[in-house]
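Reply to dn_fold:

You asked what the input looked like. This is it:
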Amino acid sequence: MTDLPISVAFVDDEPRALRAFTWEFGEDFQVKTFPGGAELLSALDAGEHFDVLISDQRMPGMTGDQVLRQVSEKYPQMRRLVMTAYADVAPLQNCINDAGIDGYLEKPWDPAEVREFVQRSHERRSQEIEREKRRIFAAGERWTIIRKDRERDLAQICAALGFDHNVCSTFFHVLELASTPRAYDWSDLLLVDKNLEQELALDFLSMIESLMLTGSELPDPARRALFYWWMLLRGCPEGQGSRFFQHENQEKNISLSFDAGAPFGDSILDPCGDRDSNTLRQNALLLLIIRELENLGGRLDLEADKTRFRGDLLIQAYSGVTG
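and this is what came back:
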């Protein structure tokens, strides 16, 4: 399998220069010419792609440095070269500072120099792509390791508190449905301190124990589940809380349709999510609700909508709850 030829866009307002460039380099590269910057930008906006752009500097309407600057802003992955027959120091400086060009070529061009510049520019871009792929792969591996470590820590916390193992697995599943992972750069994961991960687990355990102590004042699992649920909805970012509750009592069953009016918030399993007290509290409340539902034979049905935390809370065969 042979590599695809390098695609080159050449912009010049002189028809003779366009024909000459195609004749000279058409066998070396996949060449397409444009009589001005506006035509090039229209082609790019329509979805055409080029590896390398070479633009003449002195053109009517849109000068070369203006073309390259716009391409730099909208299509930064494209390598950029400017060509001029004049000693236009200021525009060339603009190209270097604002458009991030790889270099400039003089008219009349030297075919060998053009080929070398195009090849070198393309190779530089290929190297950047490979480096970015390696970074993304390394970030994915690091993210997975941190995530698995947190899952292990939370499983140990649940076991230490005497929660059924189903509580932990259900908690992980619900978090996947409810929370939206934070976008991250590979460098963000380098800031995740392994020593602070242990502190996070201890802080989360402390938050759970504190909420359990508060809930212990209520006499039965159903009341505790409803109490934790009310606290959870009110704590959702910009949430509306209990205003969205709808109760239906039939044959000692309770169904609550809920809508917090906002997203759930960050998952404690997300390596790049917030780890502040509110995040710990929301996650701890969700875990405790799932634990109480497990005791009651109930369940939590979430709608697949990460922009709004909503669904149904079902408690079966509860007792000791009125109105």
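Residues 111-160 form the longest helix (50 residues).
Hope that clears it up.
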